[in-house]
Design a protein that fits this description.
The chain contains two helices and eleven strands; from the N terminus they run E-E-E-E-E-E-E-E-E-H-H-E-E. It is mostly beta strands. It has a domain at 29-127 and 156-166: Jelly Rolls. The strands form three sheets. A six-stranded antiparallel β-sheet has the order 2-1-3-9-6-7, with no helix packed on it.
């Protein structure tokens, strides 16, 4: 069971479905990969993609931080991250808005946006399976990831797969 310290008795607002006229949010993302083994890598992405399919990152396990700037235009009330493979945390201008462990990865953000530019950060914590598959000399990792006596686990998707919508 997981508890999040979200304050005293606050209930989240029900988030409406994405309007039919909404267009996917496209942006240049500054992405930092903090691997659980301590290594760091940064990259720029113009298209959100499954990290398991990215060269040199298919065996990643850790936290992926996606950052971009959005305008505090009036009318933006919600963000829907689309499909996310991992645990998603949303920050606006450094303030934590919330965490999604399962289900729809959507947040109410209208009261968090300032006039002008706002820094949007989404941190995704991945599963360890893809990394464990690469640890060929670690018997415990291999038991769970590649044991021929058990059904072999396929590589797992990682990161924000999207599409992301602001509405």
């Amino acid at each position: 069971m997981i508890f999040e310290n979200a304050g005293k008795g606050t209930l989240e607002q029900k988030i409406p479905e994405i309007p039919a006229a909404a267009l996917p949010f496209s942006s240049n993302w500054s992405v930092d990969f903090k691997h659980m083994n301590g290594t760091l890598k940064d990259q720029r992405l113009t298209t959100l993609t499954d990290v398991k399919d990215m060269p040199e990152l298919g065996n990643f396990a850790g936290t992926i931080s996606y950052k971009t700037t959005i305008s505090g235009k009036t009318g933006i009330q919600y963000i829907d991250l689309g499909k996310v493979a991992g645990i998603a945390e949303l920050f606006i201008n450094g303030k934590k808005i919330g965490t999604r462990w399962y289900g729809r990865t959507a947040f109410h953000i209208g009261d968090q946006l300032s006039k002008g530019n706002n820094i949007l950060e989404i941190r995704v914590t991945t599963v360890m399976l893809n990394y464990m598959k690469s640890l060929t000399t670690n018997t415990t990792a291999q038991y769970w990831a590649n044991n021929p006596k058990r059904k072999e686990q396929p590589a797992q998707p990682m990161g924000i797969l999207g599409p992301v919508y602001l509405f």
